[in-house]
Amino acid sequence: MAETLLQMKDVHAWYGESHILHGVNLTVMKGEVVTLLGRNGAGRTTTLKAILGLVGRRNGSIRIEGAETAALPPHRIAHLGLGYCPEERGIFTSLSCEENLLLPPPVADGGMGLDEIYAMFPNLKERRMSPGGRLSGGEQQMLAVARILRTGAKLLLLDEISEGLAPVIVQTLARMIQQLRERGFTILMVEQNFRFAAPLADRFYIMERGLVHRELGAAELQDQMPLLHQLLGV
Of 16, 22, 104, 164, whose CB neighbour count within 10 A is largest? Predict the structure, then answer.
């Protein structure tokens, strides 16, 4: 049987006085790709930030490999083997592509080396000496994902990595996710692009108003298209 890597039970989260998550329950098994679907404002990004301790306040239970983390500070949580790629990417524009890759400290053993990363992202090898601010949007997104692969993180939290990118770059990112799954990574991703997420994920959680509205397996998607159209507009 697959082993549970992440489990959230009755998780609430706030930014200041704003109550965003209202009792989120979800589970991610080792080696899975799981996608959070929902309209803007449904609480998907806040769910990722709650896992990392990056919200103003949170309560409920968040277990990573069985260890309760709801009371831990973000740096302690990261060292349990988590890597986060935020929607805004966070590239250091004055540093070269390679300097950006080398910047994050390791959080666990087993991080990918530069040669492995460049084999997965040939574009980054070609642009390794270019300033981060000179990279295209697609190259910056590749860099933002590649950067966390060096850290040794095995649970990757990816926020809207396909947003605003050309189809050829989106295809490259899809191949990357497939390769990472084959290498044993576990991925929890937020996606608005249903066509990108549908063939990649094992399971889907549909969020609405700070709650998980529905869980679907990949095999259920076709039969549930009317529901997905109603909730997501896909």
Answer: 104
Return the CATH number of the domain spanning residue range 1-81+155-164+186-234: 3.40.50.300
The DSSP line for 11-59 is EEEEETTEEEEEEEEEEEETT-EEEEE--TTSSHHHHHHHHHT-SSEEE
In the structure, what pLDDT confidence band is assigned to residue 225 with cuts at 50, 70 and 90?
A: confident
pTM (predicted TM-score): 0.93
Task: Using CB atoms within 10 Å of the CB of residue 109, give its burial: 0 to 12 exposed, 13 to 18 middle, 19+ buried.
Answer: exposed
With both helix axes pointing from N to C terminus, report the angle between 167-182 and 137-149 in degrees, rounded to the nearest 10: 10
Spell out the residues 6+ positions from residue 156 whose beta carbon is closer than 8 angstroms to its own: 82, 83, 85, 145, 148, 180, 185, 186, 187, 188, 189
* Residue 223: Cβ-neighbour burial (10 angstroms; 0-12, 13-18, 19+): exposed
- Rounded CA gap, 234 and 230, in Å? 8
Using one digit for the tens of pLDDT, what is the confidence trace for 160-205? Answer: 999 988 898 899 999 999 999 999 999 999 998 888 988 999 999 9
Instruction: Report the chain's terminal Cα–Cα distance, integer Å.
Output: 33
Q: Token pair of 81, please?
A: 């083997």
Tell me if residue 169 falls in helix, strand or coil: helix
Q: How many CB atoms are located within 10 Å of the residue 71 CB?
A: 10
Name every residue whose Cβ is closer than 8 Å to that of residue 93 and which is 6 or more positions away in sequence: 131, 132, 133
| CATH 3.40.50.300 segments of the chain | 1-81+155-164+186-234
